[in-house]
Specification:
InterPro entries: Kinase-like_dom_sf, Prot_kinase_dom, Ser/Thr_kinase_AS. This protein is an alpha+beta fold and about 350 residues long. The chain is built from eleven helices and ten strands. The chain has helices at about 55-70, 100-105, 110-130, 185, 195-210, 220-230, 250-260, 270-285, 290, 310-315, 315-330, and strands at about 5, 15-25, 25-35, 40-45, 80-85, 85-95, 135, 145, 150-155, 160. The protein has a six-stranded antiparallel β-sheet, covered by helices on one side. Strands 7-10 form a two-stranded antiparallel sheet. Strands 8-9 form a two-stranded antiparallel sheet. The radius of gyration is 20 Å and the shape is globular. The two termini are about 30 Å apart.
Length: about 350
C-alpha cells in the first residue's frame, strides 16, 4: 500500500501509513505517523480476504473494545479504532525493540531481573483482570520491550471479556499457546478467569530463569499431558539448555510452583498478590535505596557480554521504584493499577 493520508474515525488523528512491519492470518500491521501524536504508531488493518468471516470480524472488533478499556504502562497503548472504507483497523503503541522471546534466545536471565520483570507482568495482568479481561495467551513472544527496556504486554486477540454476554470462542474450544496453557484452558473449562493467566505467568517466569519452557515434548499432546498431570515444575531442579544449574532462591521457586498448580484455587489469590511477593523480596534482599540505583534495563539496551556483572544484576531497579509509586497511587484510588519463527512447541492453538 502506498503512503497516503487517511482519516481513521472515530479517532481525531490522521495517520500516514508507512512500511509494513508485520502480518498474520487476519491482519497486516503498518508503521504510521500522525501530526496529532508525538511518536510513530502501529496501525493494524484487518485483511480484506477474511473480512467476510463473521467470527474473525467479531474477534477483531472485540479486541478494539478490549484495548479501549485498558490504560497501563505495561500494556500496549491504544489510540482508537474503527473502520476506514469498510476496513476494520486500530492504532496502537509502536513496539519495535524486540520481544522477551528474542531476548531468551541468548540464554536465561538472572533471578533479580526475572523477579522485577515478573512485577511488571503481574501489574499488567492485575489491571486487565480488574477490567474483566483475561489475556489467555501470555508468553514471551507477546511481551515486548519498549525503548526504555520495560516489558509491555500486547496481542489481546484471543482475550476473554468477562463482562461480555458471550465469549468470542465457541463453547468447548481450546485457545492459547500450548506451552503456556493452564489445565483449564486445555480442557476448555467455561469458568476460565484470571487464574489461567497466573498459570501462564508461572510458565514465563520458569522460562526466563532456564531459557526453556517448564514442560517439553515432541507434540502438543505430550506437553498438554504434562500440564494436566505432571507435578509443578521446579526451577531449582532444572538446568539451562547449556546444562548449567539454575540459580534461583527457594522462595521464587516455591512461588513458581504455586503458579503452576493444576487446580486454579491452589494458585495465588490474584496477580496483585504475586506482584507483592516479588516486590517485597526484592526490597528485602537489596534495600529500597539500592533498588533506586538502577542505571539501565536488559533487552535492546543491555550491557555487552563480558560487561560489569554487578551492574548487569541491577538492570531493572528503576522500574521497581516507579512501581512503588504506582502501588501507592492505586491504593489512593488512581486509574493505574500499578504496572518470528516459532518452535513447534510454541505454536498457538487459536481458533
Amino acid at each position: 500500500m502506498s503512503e497516503r493520508k487517511q482519516g481513521f474515525l472515530p479517532t481525531k488523528a490522521t495517520f500516514e501509513l508507512g512500511d509494513q512491519i508485520g502480518s498474520g492470518t487476519v491482519g497486516v500491521v503498518y508503521r504510521a505517523t500522525s501530526p496529532d501524536l508525538p511518536e510513530p504508531v502501529a496501525v493494524k488493518l484487518l485483511s480484506p480476504n477474511v473480512s467476510g468471516d463473521a467470527a474473525i470480524v467479531e474477534r477483531f472488533e472485540r479486541e478494539i473494545v478490549v484495548m479501549e478499556r485498558l490504560n497501563h504502562p505495561h500494556i500496549v497503548r491504544n489510540y482508537g479504532g474503527g473502520r476506514i472504507d469498510g476496513q476494520l483497523f486500530y492504532a496502537m503503541q509502536l513496539l519495535d525493540c524486540g520481544s522477551l522471546k528474542d531476548r531468551l534466545r541468548r540464554g536465561p536471565l538472572p533471578w533479580p531481573q526475572v523477579a522485577a520483570y515478573g512485577v511488571q507482568i503481574a501489574s499488567a495482568l492485575q489491571h486487565a483482570h480488574n477490567h474483566g479481561i483475561v489475556h489467555r495467551d501470555l508468553k514471551p513472544s507477546n511481551l515486548f520491550y519498549d525503548r526504555d527496556g520495560n516489558l509491555v504486554l500486547g496481542d489481546f486477540g484471543i482475550a476473554r471479556d468477562l463482562t461480555a454476554q458471550a465469549d468470542i470462542t465457541q463453547h468447548g474450544m481450546t485457545v492459547g499457546t500450548f506451552s503456556y496453557m493452564s489445565p483449564e484452558q486445555i480442557t476448555a473449562d467455561a469458568r476460565i478467569d484470571g487464574k489461567a493467566d497466573l498459570y501462564s505467568l508461572g510458565c514465563v517466569l520458569f522460562e526466563m530463569l532456564t531459557a526453556k519452557t517448564p514442560y517439553q515434548g515432541a507434540s502438543f499432546a505430550q506437553v498438554w499431558d504434562q500440564h494436566l498431570h505432571a507435578p509443578p515444575a521446579s526451577v531449582r531442579a532444572a538446568q539451562t539448555e547449556a546444562g548449567v544449574p539454575v540459580t534461583c532462591p527457594e522462595w521464587l521457586d516455591e512461588l513458581i510452583r504455586k503458579l503452576l498448580s493444576k487446580k486454579a484455587y491452589e494458585r495465588p489469590f490474584n496477580a496483585r498478590a504475586v506482584e507483592g511477593v516479588l516486590l517485597q523480596h526484592l526490597l528485602d534482599e537489596f534495600g529500597e535505596e539500592e533498588a533506586k540505583k538502577l542505571t539501565r534495563l536488559d533487552g535492546p539496551h543491555a550491557l555487552p557480554r563480558g560487561g560489569d556483572e554487578k551492574q548487569r544484576t541491577w538492570v531493572i531497579w528503576v522500574v521497581l521504584a516507579a512501581l512503588v509509586v504506582g502501588l501507592a497511587y492505586a491504593a489512593a484510588g488512581g486509574s493505574s493499577d500499578s504496572p518470528i519463527e516459532t518452535p513447534p512447541q510454541e505454536q498457538s492453538a487459536k481458533p
